[in-house]
Amino acid sequence: MELYVNFEIPRELEEELGRHFRVVKGGDLSRVEAALVSKLTPEELAKMPRLRFIQVVTAGLDHLPWEHIPPHVAVAGNAGSNADAVVEFALGMLLAAFKRVFYYSEKMRRGDYGKDIPVPVLAGKKVAVLGLGEIGSRAARALAALGAEVWGFARTPRDGPWRFTDRLEEALRGAYAAVCALPLTKHTRGLVRYEHLALMREDAVFVNVGRAEVVDREGALRIVKERPRFVFASDVWWSRHDFSKDAEFFALPNVIATPWVAGGYGSEEVWRRMVEEAVRNLITWASGGRPRNVARREDYI
Amino acid sequence: MELYVNFEIPRELEEELGRHFRVVKGGDLSRVEAALVSKLTPEELAKMPRLRFIQVVTAGLDHLPWEHIPPHVAVAGNAGSNADAVVEFALGMLLAAFKRVFYYSEKMRRGDYGKDIPVPVLAGKKVAVLGLGEIGSRAARALAALGAEVWGFARTPRDGPWRFTDRLEEALRGAYAAVCALPLTKHTRGLVRYEHLALMREDAVFVNVGRAEVVDREGALRIVKERPRFVFASDVWWSRHDFSKDAEFFALPNVIATPWVAGGYGSEEVWRRMVEEAVRNLITWASGGRPRNVARREDYI
User: Fold this and answer.
1) B124 burial via Cβ count (<10 Å: 0-12, 13-18, 19+)
2) In A12, A166, A231, B202, which residue has its Cα 20 to 30 A from B160's Cα atom?
3) pLDDT in tens, A258-282
4) Which residues form the D-isomer specific 2-hydroxyacid dehydrogenase catalytic domain (chains A, B) (predicted)?
5) pLDDT at B176 over 90
6) What is the C-alpha to C-alpha distance for residues A282 and A55, in angstroms, rounded to an integer?
């Protein structure tokens, strides 16, 4: 069976794939039945009429050209492969913001040594976790272990050390902090709006390590401008990689911004693990097994 | 029995004390046998010839005038009463520094959107925790739960999800990060020197939420100047509250500084819990029980 791979993978993983597939990297793709990709263009898809399975190396699948993927082609993502990396990042953002470490360290840097705003305690406080996939559920467990009263929001109930709700309002009302780890689908696009953020406390911390588009941009901008003690900390931006388009956020003192690096940017270790997991899932499929993380097409189209 | 209290405590806690003691707040202290204090001066001590027990409301006891406390007077601290608050703060500092959140958010603030240094993963990495009291052991548990390989350093072995060592060199050698939560005693003053910090990785993160004086000031300054990727994040400073004397640290991009606020600065909730714990311990002593956190005099003199 022919497999199309459109990015560089470590030699030994390529050798492993070679035991199950004939790997092609370009040229004639007419006999390709499976693809291992990070991104995929409509042009590449058009060259693969026999394609039956797409294994994506990233966790998110929102960047695929879904309209061009025929309905009989199964698409598998790679959720969980870099969840550790993202959870650590989300907790760092949340705790440093909630404990006012960013606030005080920026003041100290400016030579202003005054203490003014209190440093609250997270233990016992309501914290919302939006999305209970690999990242959300691991973040929720870590926050519960620190003593927070965690509310988990998702479409489908999932058990864990949290109170489950499928109502966003219930998750955010009165919350001291929130972590957003929702995937971007047609159901979640623009889901978190001003009126939801406004249900949180005046000085709440909202952390986004999922996709920017899950949050309504104007709603986020309005809340940080209206509430100087509200902190919006995000690794993802609506402009995707052209960050200058979201510069009005970065100038605000109550915005903590990082340039889409939470997934282990530049970390060979994380990337290697992601490719390994993707290769393993692909081989499961090729061997007649049941691959993990197969997307629901109707979530995207 | 007469009890001397030298700071404001909530009314209902004072009423509780009133059921066990005759509370005095000044004037004639000659019949005082116990004291509940935050600080204590040699002058106050001189007025209390019948003093037998001092309950301090803070966890640290290094600020007491030990030379003026007679050897027969027992001194109890309040370790653990604000441990939650400090642990959350230490984790926020450590994770935000280790995941390069400070680095990238400062860059974004300046309009520099370039990605350069990688964002590493903590899971699987060696992290040292110095001091295994309430704060150290809780921080160590949280780090172990995130998958870090935790090395716990203390004088006396304590079991937990860490490798114990009583050798500082062993704890720090090759470590990616360290949290210092040692008490300041005559044994720990100046304990962590340049040669110890230099055993850590080039880009390691050292977090101090204990007492500044445990770390040698010149050693810390030398390491952050020599190693631009080393991060020194601290809530405590050698100048204590006159932060301007340590300003040369705050100007460095690889120093994260906060103004001694980790213990829940300004948080009524934390303060209330501290006073409650101190009152409970004092009543245990007055009722003939065994009070917690009794200091070893020889650690200070």
Assistant:
1) exposed
2) B202
3) 999 999 888 888 889 999 999 999 9
4) 38-294
5) yes
6) 6
Phi, psi of B165, deg, nearest 5: -145, 145
pLDDT in tens, A80-127: 888 999 999 999 999 999 999 999 999 999 999 999 999 999 999 999
- Neighbour tally for A267: CB within 10 Å: 18
User: What is the pLDDT at residue A264?
Assistant: 85
The pLDDT-based confidence of B138 (bands split at 50, 70, 90) is very high
pLDDT digits 0-9 by tens, A210-247: 999 999 999 999 999 999 999 999 999 999 889 999 99
Amino acid at the residue B39: K
B144 φ/ψ angles, rounded to the nearest 5 degrees: -65, -40
Q: What is the ipTM of this complex?
A: 0.90
B100 and B120 belong to one structural domain: yes
Are B34 and B286 contacting, i.e. CB atoms less than 8 angstroms apart?
yes
Q: Please report, rounded to a whole number, the percentage of residues in chain B having pLDDT higher than 70.
A: 100
Q: State the Cα torsion B261-B265-B270-B271 to the nearest 10°.
A: 120
- Bridge partners (DSSP) of residue B22 are B2
Residues A91 and A75 in one domain: no
Q: Residue A53's domain spans which residues?
A: 2-80+267-299
Instruction: Considering only the beta carbons, identify the residue of A89, A113, A123 that sits closest to B244.
Output: A113
Which one-letter amino acid corresponds to residue B201? R
> Quick one: which of A166, A151, A241, A255 has its CA closest to A208?
A255
Residue B201 lies in a domain: yes
| Whether residues A127 and A229 fall in one domain | yes
Strand partners, A74: A53
DSSP A101-114: HHHHHHHHHTT---
User: Which residues have CB under 8 Å from A46's CB, separation 6+?
Assistant: A68
Confirm or reject contact between A229 and chain B (CB < 8 A).
no
Cα distance between residue B9 and residue A166, in whole Å: 44
Token pair recorded at residue B7: 């700071």
